């Protein structure tokens, strides 16, 4: 008998992408009778629930259950879906994702061979819309200048890592280390994987476990996403400061140095020179990356689109991180 699998998905207002996910789960090579899908919906106000209901009526042989996530946060939705699920192995997915047909089968195989306590794979990032901005964002979200050494977004090798997107684990892992932290509104995956590693467990990345992830489709949505990432990363690092990685430290340092040089450039002429040098150097590196990718992909808009998207990621993440730290200080002394 194959182990029973519960696929858990938090979602909110995902009428445009939820059908892609549902069809990808329907197409899994894992036995359908051994799978269930539990969707934790954050009280969607669009047609998400209607799309799910239509899918259920069309394919009644796939067990799909929808539960209402009244707290309307990702970690609360994950925990609620876990409580409602029944499978031996939990596979976490996202409403913006589309797993390959062998996704669940390969997750289970990795667990059966004892590869890791939390097993995940790599993302193939696609544009969330057919626009120059959305396409530029999708390339930026997989570029080393945008994500550093986050291996699940790059060409990775199998092995133990700090974190994986989504992840899959035995239900018993929750009993051992606890559920997702509902006080963190982002970075809940990284925090969960930190507890996995600190309990002596292994977070394992298997490049054969692949999923498509649809990135944000506008620069405004990208900025909001990365501000949130930076803001909640600081909250997480207050508990686990030793988990800070260089790719996470650079954006707030860069934003802070820009702010400091702007302030100092008013009374100190040399600070203006340093500010200009830093901005020109930054612009040169991003423009070079944009030119290289534009030539490789034969796509002209990447010359300015890639630098713009990466700059939005850096500045939003860094500013969110710094604001989280500043607001924490005021809250402590308020």
Could you walk me through the main structural features you see in this protein, from its secondary elements to its overall organization?
Helix 5 crosses helix 12, helix 9 crosses helix 12 (302-333) and helix 10 (246-264) crosses helix 11. The termini are far apart. The mean pLDDT is 92. The longest helix has 32 residues, at 302-333. The chain folds into two domains: 5-216, Spore Coat Polysaccharide Biosynthesis Protein SpsA, Chain A, CATH 3.90.550; 237-333, no CATH class. The chain contains twelve helices and nine strands. With 334 residues, it is of the alpha/beta class. The chain is 51% helix and 16% strand.
Please give the order of strands in the largest beta sheet.
3-2-1-4-8
The N- to C-terminal Cα distance equals: 59 Å
User: What's the architecture of the largest domain, going by CATH?
Assistant: Alpha-Beta Complex
Total of DSSP H or I helical runs spanning 4+ residues:
12
Rough outline: globular
Please identify the top-level CATH class of the largest domain: Alpha Beta
SSE-based structural type:
alpha/beta
Radius of gyration from the alpha-carbon trace, in angstroms: 21 Å
Task: Provide the succession of SSEs.
Answer: EHEHEHEEHEHHEEHHEHHHH
Contiguous low-pLDDT stretches (5 residues minimum) are none
What count of structural domains? 2
What do we call the CATH topology of the largest domain? Spore Coat Polysaccharide Biosynthesis Protein SpsA, Chain A
CATH superfamily of the largest domain: Spore Coat Polysaccharide Biosynthesis Protein SpsA, Chain A
Give the amount of beta strand, in percent.
15-25%
